[in-house]
DNA sequence: CTGAAAGCGCTAACAT
DNA sequence: ATGTTAGCGCTTTCAG
């Protein structure tokens, strides 16, 4: 009606003016400082509401106020695993008024480095990363950044700051020992692209070690360089079994998606579980446990990893001490497929 | 060694000094402006590198530079659906150097409103939201914020700015028509908590309309007020079938997770698909298509929704025109379960 | 409990 | 092609 559109948003200055106080008092009131009088608080809140004031945290953070953003770098969102972790993170962060700022590295160290640089440039309060082969530059940025950093998923590494996760090698080893104790002797493996997924590779490594301990070797191995999926597991098992020779008595899959595919192949091919063939996976996904015959697997505590990582960030920010390493562990799930 | 730790990060000023140019020139160089001489560019880059300079986008954005953050509000991460959408979003955004800042509303309008306020206070370049019953205040903030806003998933609504998605009501209707055309007459429904998931409710609504068109009514209906899951679908079907009377010839599930549970129940209970009972779901998840018998379902284009929404934001930011409504459609998938 | 001053680190707008 | 000037909107000191 008059000069400009009301597009320029009201600033703290206008709120303060309307409430008849100084900028800083308005600022304190709006941030819930407990030094302001109830009356001033009320006046300021009213002024803010009537103007439709929206806090500008860019300015706040630049002026030295706290940031409530936490950088989060994950390798992928395609598999339910990382959304589960993210869920745990988000949940804890949101309760504390924080937000994840997300980056996906696609398992690529270069992209990862770029993401770190990008996210750090927003001066987040902390950073959570599921590493995919961090470069030296990545490590340098993280250690120089002077903020809490949590490396998640795997704890078989030496973290820059903190780590939360489980031992994937240990999980593979434990599964091998368990299965061997149950009497299986011809153990085979079907996996997805291990070149990129180094945690899957670590599990296989541990599994192999378990076999070695018992004087065994892998009775068959199919790895396909594609992302894991139910269809891939199905195909992988089919390939494994086609290849003549004495068939294995058990197949360890790189994860539950793959293993469920294996179960489906057996159903379709009339292979009875676990008599003719046993199957084991990794992750403890809901789908595996809801199968007509529950899947033998290792439950990873994905959401807990996210929650714990968020907790580490928040704790550190509030000045508390935090553990350098947190092992959330894993649990063997004895289903009907073995 | 000397006074303070080098903890205070180098600023543009120091980079400029070291390169022997002014701050603004250093700024231009580092942002890749094409008005700087190659030599100065090089000098500045070297200076920045040798100092370990890390851009501060807080300051940049406050000073009027662009933000590369995009607020993203989703109701949940538990079901693979929203991670799929997020994946599409992230992918497109990342290619443009943008990052999603995430908030999860848990299907709660109040939380949603709070999230909008929070995210907007960071002055993001745009906002993408899968609405969960936006309040008036929410709408007011979004329309007053003067940034591109995309409401995703459903297009049966009147968006504040733009909308990208599909008609859930239409999907339910199409499925009903399809199934009736195929000869089914006793169609039942098994669903999860429809009170919160209004898109599932819309599908059921459309489905019912399809029945009405054909002079039919639902031959049975079980809804359980829990989040959807395979286990819940299994339980739901069990409940539906227990309840005496003439059994249905088809069950429409609220989504694929639920439907897969239904399929598992049939496998376990020795109900042959689709002769004794047919099953249909919604979403077109990988798991449903990898079942020994592929699931009849409606494929929703989730990742495409995310990509398209991101595209809308980016287009608008670059000044291009964008459609108010984008219907990414859906496709019927005729599997073996019907 | 409230305020005044100073500046966070950068970039748009003009110069030159 | 480069520099100067002035803020962006807020919060941290430090005073009262």
Verbal overview:
2 copies of one chain form a homodimer. The first copy, chain A, is α/β, with parallel strands linked by helices. Chain A folds into 3 domains: 12-55, 434 Repressor (Amino-terminal Domain) (Orthogonal Bundle), CATH 1.10.260; 69-162 and 302-324, Response regulator (Rossmann fold, 3-Layer(aba) Sandwich), CATH 3.40.50; 168-300, Rossmann fold (3-Layer(aba) Sandwich), CATH 3.40.50. Chain A is 44% helix and 16% strand. In chain A, strand 6 (187-191), helix 9 and strand 7 form a beta-alpha-beta unit. The longest helix of chain A is centred in the middle third of the chain and has 16 residues, at 198-213. In chain A, 54% of the residues are buried. Chains A and B meet through helix 4, helix 5, strand 2, helix 6 and helix 7 of A and helix 4, helix 5, strand 2, helix 6 and helix 7 of B. The structure holds a DNA duplex (16 and 16 nucleotides).
Approximate strand percentage of chain A: 15-25%
SSE order of chain A: HHHHEHEHEHEEHEHEHEHEHEHEE
Compute the separation of the termini of chain A in Å: 76 Å
Biggest interface? A-B, 58 and 59 residues
Quaternary structure classification:
homodimer
Outline the low-pLDDT stretches of chain A. 1-6
Query: What does the average pLDDT of chain A come to?
Result: 94
Helix content percent band of chain A: 40-55%
Number of separate domains of chain A:
3
Number of discrete helical segments of chain A: 13
Question: Any idea of the CATH topology of the largest domain in chain A?
Answer: Rossmann fold
Q: Identify the strand order in the major beta sheet of chain A.
A: 2-1-3-4-5-11
Structural class of chain A: alpha/beta
Measured on Cα atoms, how large is the radius of gyration of chain A?
26 Å
User: What's the total count of β strands of chain A?
Assistant: 12
Please name the fourth-level CATH homologous superfamily of the largest domain in chain A: Response regulator
